[in-house]
Structures are given as structure tokens and as C-alpha cells.
Amino acid sequence: MEKKKLKHFQPGFNITQRVKEDERLREFNEYSKKMQAIGRTTDWHETQDKYSVMKANKANEKKIEAELEQANEDLKVLRNHRLKELYEKEMQQYQDELADMGLAIAHVGNDE
Asked: From the record, what ranges are coiled-coil (predicted)?
């Protein structure tokens, strides 16, 4: 039985086992580093997507706001024009009523 030595009693067995264990740990560390690099790349892309969508939304909001401001300004101009027309129409009606009664509005101090 002496001739047949057990594996763990052979010279250099501990060294061989340590080398195997170190190699296994090195492979795990490399895999871990690779996964961390992939994670960083993924985080970067997600951040870029998030901010690009946010920038696009802000640009759209500014465009919509500018359009609303222009529409409000156009509406003000239209309302003022219609109000002026109404006042002129009412003034003409009033002058016509006065003319029917033989009266007129005296414009004193105006060159009209």
C-alpha cells in the first residue's frame, strides 16, 4: 500500500491546488470586471436616453409655448379690430339716428 500514495500526500500537491484555486479566482475577477464594465456602459446609455428625451420634451414645450403666445397675440389683434369695427358701426348708427332727428355731432377743435 506504500507504493500507491494518496494524491494529497504527493509532493507539490498543495502548490498545484493553490495554482488551480488562484486561476479560478482570477477568472471570476475577470468576469466580474467585465460585468462591471457592461454595467457602466449600460448606465451611460440609459442616462443619455433619459436626457435626450428630456431635452426633446423641453424643446417641444418651448415650441408649444411660443405658438400659444403667438396665437394669443393674434387673438388680441383680431379682438381689437372687431371691437374697433363695432364702435365705428355703433357711432355710424348713432349719427344716422341723430341725422334722422335733424341733429348732428359737433366736432370742436378737431380737424376732421
From this structure: 54-104
